[in-house]
Amino acid sequence: MSTQTNGTTMTNGPQHANGSDKERVVIIGSGNWQVLSTLGSAIASVAAKNVLLHHELFHPEVKMWVFEEDYEGKPLTRVINETHMNPRYLPDIPLGDNVTAEPDLGKALQGATALVFVMPHQFFRKALDGIKGKVSQNARAVSLIKGVDVHGTKIQAYATIVNEELGISCSSLSGANIATEVAEGKFSESTLGVPSPDGFEGDPDTLPDARLWKPLFDTKTFSISVVADVEGVGLCGALKNIVAVAAGFIDGLGWGSNSKAAIMRIGMNEIKDFSLEYFPTTRAETFLEQSCGIADIITSCLGGRNRKVAEAMVKEGKPFQELEESMLKGQKLQGPETALHVHEFLAARGTKRPGGYPLFDAVWRICYEGAKPESIIDKL
Ligand SMILES: NC(=O)c1ccc[n+]([C@@H]2O[C@H](COP(=O)([O-])OP(=O)(O)OC[C@H]3O[C@@H](n4cnc5c(N)ncnc54)[C@H](O)[C@@H]3O)[C@@H](O)[C@H]2O)c1
Ligand SMILES: O=P(O)(O)OC[C@H](O)CO
């Protein structure tokens, strides 16, 4: 098994067990980030174009594992394969004729060497159980999942779990990336965190996993920057969802732009300090300089689903679970559960930060403990 801290077993790619020297891409997930699933479906549409462009590196077919469900009386996979769109999670966006939807995870993984994980974190563990033992040790993975996994005093980003459980190298991709805007080809940036040898200070674009994933995702309108910080990129994506919930409360209360800017600033500091406190390989500049850091906080606090549902919680006085169902229609919220996971972790592990993490704590209290939204500023 490879170990991935700042270092990993650095496979240099091609010459795979499938007998081909070309990378075979499988997208595991098919939601709103399909561009990347809706990211899954949005990501599928970006990746589908790039495998054709970089045909010397990639096999032309992109498989997409789809959690099978009924769509207007037909299996969703059949609808996707007939129309080359995913009307359930990413309406009106062509995915590319070379994307094949597959409901059987084992079949989707056959011959796969480049695994793109893009599903709500709520479904990750079950999918991972179905993947174990079915992946070539030459394969590599990238996680686009924005969340953290907590067990008692242990907290992990998803790329680390993929690395540990499947024994393959895993990168992270995260940024200011509202899926529909990416799918519509509106200019966005994203950050790719790749494994590197300990103490690496060179050009991250030269690292082996950057040479695989950057050609798959980078386009003129979806611009990828590479950093040697897998965990930092994953943590930014996870923790900004808590801040976006807080921003939604501010909107619901009608408190205006100064309050929202304060929430973004305080949230940025909590994300950075939390990551540096518990994940020693993370780099402060990832939070302050990259799309996955400050830029994703801004876009999520302006236009994300977490913000939208949290605003409705205040205005309609309903719990997030009810609003998630009625407003998102099958898409999933990550912010409230991430606040719960972080709360459980901090309760078990404690913190050396003076005053703790009061914004993260306030979001947990409002979502799960019935605290009033106005109390969000009480300990800031
Ligand atoms: N949508 C975005 O704008 C966006 C942007 C960047 C990152 N992300 C991240 O990408 C990840 C995926 O988000 P998304 O927006 O694509 O998903 P989503 O919120 O659209 O959720 C729908 C997905 O969940 C799947 N699903 C539903 N029930 C399931 C089950 N029982 N088992 C397995 N899968 C099931 C559906 O098949 C579909 O793929 C998340 O971590 C999210 O934070 C999303
Ligand atoms: O819609 P949200 O709140 O899940 O955020 C989507 C993306 O993560 C924004 O980068």
From TrEMBL:
UniProt-annotated binding residues for substrate: K146, R305, N306
InterPro entries linked to this entry:
6-PGluconate_DH-like_C_sf (IPR008927), 6PGD_dom2 (IPR013328), G3P_DH_NAD-dep (IPR006168), G3P_DH_NAD-dep_C (IPR006109), G3P_DH_NAD-dep_euk (IPR017751), G3P_DH_NAD-dep_N (IPR011128), NAD(P)-bd_dom_sf (IPR036291)
Q: What is its EC number?
A: 1.1.1.8
Give the residues the record marks as binding NAD(+).
29-40, 67, 123, 179, 305, 332, 334
Q: Which ranges carry the Glycerol-3-phosphate dehydrogenase NAD-dependent N-terminal domain?
A: 25-194
- Keyword vocabulary terms for this entry: NAD, Oxidoreductase
Q: Give the Gene Ontology MF terms in alphabetical order.
A: glycerol-3-phosphate dehydrogenase (NAD+) activity; NAD binding; protein homodimerization activity
Q: Does the keyword RNA-binding apply?
A: no
Pfam family of the protein (one): NAD_Gly3P_dh_N
One Gene Ontology CC term in the entry? cytosol
Catalytic residues at K240 (proton acceptor)
Task: Choose any GO biological process term that the UniProt entry carries and state it.
Answer: carbohydrate metabolic process
Broad EC category: oxidoreductase
Every Glycerol-3-phosphate dehydrogenase NAD-dependent C-terminal domain range? 229-377
Reactions catalysed, semicolon-separated, are: sn-glycerol 3-phosphate + NAD(+) = dihydroxyacetone phosphate + NADH + H(+)
Q: Where is this region: Disordered?
A: 1-21
- Bias-annotated ranges (Polar residues): 1-18
Recorded hits in PANTHER family, A to Z, give: GLYCEROL-3-PHOSPHATE DEHYDROGENASE, GLYCEROL-3-PHOSPHATE DEHYDROGENASE [NAD(+)]-RELATED
The entry's family comment says: Belongs to the NAD-dependent glycerol-3-phosphate dehydrogenase family.
NCBIfam families associated with the record: glycerol3P_DH
Q: What name goes with this protein?
A: Glycerol-3-phosphate dehydrogenase [NAD(+)]
Naturally occurring in which organism (per UniProt): Serendipita indica (strain DSM 11827) (Root endophyte fungus)
